[in-house]
Design brief:
Layout lengths: L1 H33 L5 E5 L6 H16 L4 E5 L6 H8 L7 E5 L2 H8 L11 E10 L2 E4 L8 H10 L5 E4 L5 H13 L4 E4 L2 H11 L4 E4 L1 H9 L4 E5 L14 H4 L8 E8 L4 H15 L2 H4 L2 H4 L1 E3 L4 H22 L6
Parallel strand pairs: 1-2, 1-3, 6-7, 6-8
Antiparallel strand pairs: 3-10, 4-10, 4-11, 5-8, 5-9
Length: 332
């Protein structure tokens, strides 16, 4: 009799778990079908006007048109993207607060001793919007018309050449250190406040070389204010079809491909992540958006949450190695 009661209780428990799983799946699916149920905030941890901000506003408009609720872009710059990222990390995991992220998010844990969130575990990757690259440029006064000539010049003038970057741990800093280490050149890294500061320093000749986003490099190269030597991606950039990659120009193992993507708070239902990523892919297929990709300095990605998660986690490991090899000290 006792065994019979035990078996009965066990059967009821299994049935309860089974029904809960079905109901939970149904609830999640229903929520995804009705998502969003209120305005969506898209947090940009950078100042207005940059590439990430421009992309965010373009996608916010398209999302708003497709959904019955408005998607609002909020710029929350400061502290190396920590301020804006914290807003999303501590938001409700319901898909109504999203983060527009760049590779700097994947390096946070390598350059900060303490953070108010876990850059990996407190976020759920949604979709990589685009794949980006940077452009190696020099001031016209620099007697180097190729990467090999720049490397030779740097070696002949030990410690006299400077490169500008947008701050510790930023893409322009990491790619600059990658070049320094790969080429074995004794150059000095000079930090500035953002990409705008780097661009100005290059234009005035305060630094001899650096890396810019394609739009800034293109305009200045056309005007003769800067000289383009190479692009950092795995292939030639759409805006620079005649410019070699760093690998083609003399450093065969060199490659830096960045990205702009969307992160959500951890524990956001998978169905919602999938719905948003599907919307990203749909928007990328629109002719007016596709036409803007060269100006954004990238190529369409539109990945699934799983694909973006793999890319993001791979970059966390890759950037940690770069930070260690470059001897970049952690910050508070």
């Amino acid at each position: 009799m006792a065994m019979s009661n035990l078996a009965h209780r066990f059967s009821r428990r299994i049935l309860s778990y089974f029904l809960s799983a079905i109901l939970g799946f149904s609830a999640g699916s229903a929520f995804a079908q009705t998502y969003p149920v209120k305005p969506v905030r898209m947090i940009v941890p950078f100042t207005a006007g940059g590439t990430s901000d421009t992309i965010a506003r373009a996608f916010a408009q398209k999302f708003s048109e497709a959904w019955k609720y408005q998607v609002l872009v909020e710029n929350r710059p400061g502290a190396g993207t920590i301020i804006g990222s914290e807003v999303v990390a501590k938001a409700a995991p319901d898909g109504h607060t999203l983060l527009i992220a760049a590779p700097g998010h994947a390096v946070l844990s390598s350059i900060y001793r303490k953070l108010p969130f876990d850059p990996v575990n407190d976020f759920a990757p949604v979709s990589q919007i685009i794949t980006t690259y940077h452009v190696l440029v020099v001031h016209p006064s620099v007697p180097a018309g190729s990467l090999k000539e720049l490397i030779a010049l740097a070696r002949s003038q030990s410690g006299k050449l400077n490169y500008g970057h947008a701050g510790v741990g930023t893409a322009t800093h990491l790619v600059g250190e990658m070049l320094r280490i790969s080429a074995g050149i004794p150059v000095v890294a000079v930090p500035y406040k953002g990409d705008a500061g780097v661009g100005l320093a290059l234009l005035t000749g305060e630094v001899q070389f650096g890396f810019l986003v394609p739009t800034n490099a293109l305009d200045n190269a056309r005007a003769g204010r800067l000289r383009v030597l190479a692009v950092t991606g795995s292939g030639r950039g759409s805006a620079f079809p005649n410019v070699p990659t760093v690998a083609e120009a003399g450093l065969p193992d060199f490659e830096y491909t960045g990205w702009v993507g969307i992160l959500a708070p951890a524990e956001t239902p998978r169905d919602i992540l999938t719905k948003i990523s599907g919307e990203v892919a749909r928007v990328l297929r629109m002719p007016d958006i596709a036409a803007r990709l060269p100006a954004w300095g990238g190529d369409a990605a539109g990945t699934t949450p799983e694909q973006f998660s793999a890319k993001f986690r791979s970059d966390v490991v890759k950037f940690a190695k770069i930070v260690k090899e470059a001897g970049i000290p952690p910050m508070e």
